[in-house]
Amino acid sequence: MNAAARKGSTQDLTLLVVDDDPQVVRLIRRFGENAGFGVSSYDGGQKALDRLARDRVDVAVVDLQMPQVGGLEVLRAIRQADPDCQTILMSGAATIDSAIEAAKLGAIDYLTKPFDFDRLKALLATVKDEAARRRRLLVAEREVAKELEFCGMIGRSSVMQELFGLIRRLAPHVRTVLVLGETGVGKELVARALYESGPRRHKRFVPINCSAIAESLVESELFGHMRGAFTGATDTKPGMFEVADGGTLFLDEVGELPLAMQAKLLRALESGEVQRVGAVEPRHVDVHVIAATNQSLRAKVDAGRFRADLYYRLNVVEIAIPPLRERREDIPYLTAAFVREASRRLGKRLIGPTPAAERWLADARWEGNIRELRNVIERACILADGEFITERELTGSIARPVSRDAPSPHAPSVPGADDASLSTLERERIQEVLEQTGGNKLSAARILGLSRRALYRRLERYGLDATPKPR
Questions:
Q1: Residue 329's pLDDT is what?
Q2: In this predicted structure, what is the pLDDT of residue 52?
Q3: Which of 184, 260, 468, 470 fits a disulfide with 369 by CB distance 3.0 to 4.6 angstroms?
Q4: Residue 194: pLDDT above 50?
Q5: Does the pLDDT at position 416 exceed 50?
Q6: Do domains 3-115 and 158-324 have the same CATH topology?
């Protein structure tokens, strides 16, 4: 493969060489290129830091003793900017203290000059083998995710396998189901799975979000109206119960229904009849009803905000969906599926997260559950330049993860792709912070929670002017 072809390969690994001795730089550069790495070399630590602020590297070979910015400082910057970068420290005057400090900073080896090139060859081979192993692992997780999919849901955890089994058992028999779960856990997916696994899968599935309908229009939306029944009713319109006749009606956020409509819903469930607004005679409908809520209906009953008789009528069979924090073992497979979807849609050859990014995903709070995870992965895929999603792309999406046992204050969630362009939102936020800081990039990066390199890359991508301005 020629140099140009190798440069465009998605499997090309990058090697950074930092040493103030030009002879050493030339030797390692030639050695790295012969080993199949794309090599960048610098004769000083500050130049290397500027490079690290813009781009990621897979492995760095750094001299310990350099003027102005030494090797240990470069290692600290690498560890902060890119935890996935493998680092090798070299020195002509090694000490036990410097070796211990290098190990603390994550260096995979400490080479003394003149060092053994066979040892360096073995280290670079290990880096390449680990990258290849990572690719194989992520490809395998993607294939497993396909096998684990059930009606659009993915779960290898025992709680999800039990949920899938429960759906299969219930679907052929039940007419009314209550689905419980936090925002973003996939309540509509469970409702669709019940529908698709049941005898009415060839009939209509009609979803309606009760919280999204103005209170004055709820009755008309659910039960329909006759022409002239109220101001603006210029035509006769069937309600969602009639639209779903013979099939399944999904009432999302049923706890938001006004009390007056709860009584009419109860009558429809018990009698199988609905009456349009302004109609004299009721109409018979044959509808399976799946209701869902992220609230405690029992608590609303106790507070007098939800009818007890309707609650018991809906709660013939109850399905509770676990939040993502209780099924963290599913995160790698969900991530693999979302990366596959985003790669196809964006026309990118993305494989998946780096090890550090995968740890970040595993430890995040995920208060928005599956919906938040999907949005974070989509955003990261948009921002990613290479074949892997790094921690940088993730930390630009939501707040840093916390310990699973730590208190969980509410962190801002990522706005959905439907709300606005993710790129536009990010560009506007960066522009706003730059104006606040007078173009000070270090301060802006700190406010945005980004590394300097991540900020520089975004400035370049969005064509933003970060020239310091007098304040």
A1: 94
A2: 77
A3: 184
A4: yes
A5: no
A6: yes
Q: Which residue has the higher pLDDT, 153 or 396?
A: 153
- Structural domain spans, the chain: 3-115, 158-324, 330-462
Report pLDDT digits (tens) over 39-79: 988 887 788 888 777 777 889 898 887 777 777 888 888 88
Domain 158-324 bears CATH identifier 3.40.50.1000: no
For position 450, what pLDDT does the model report? 65
pLDDT tier, 400 (very low <50, low <70, confident <90, very high otherwise)? very low
**CATH ID of 3-115, from 3.40.190.10, 3.40.50.2300, 3.20.20.70, 3.40.718.10:** 3.40.50.2300
Rg (CA), the chain: 29
What residues have CB less than 8 Å from 58, skipping those under 6 apart? Answer: 13, 14, 15, 37, 84, 85, 86, 127, 131
CATH number of 330-462: 1.10.8.60
Partners of 107 in the β-ladder: 87
Q: What is the pLDDT, as a whole number, of residue 228?
A: 81
Percentage of the chain beyond pLDDT 70 is: 87
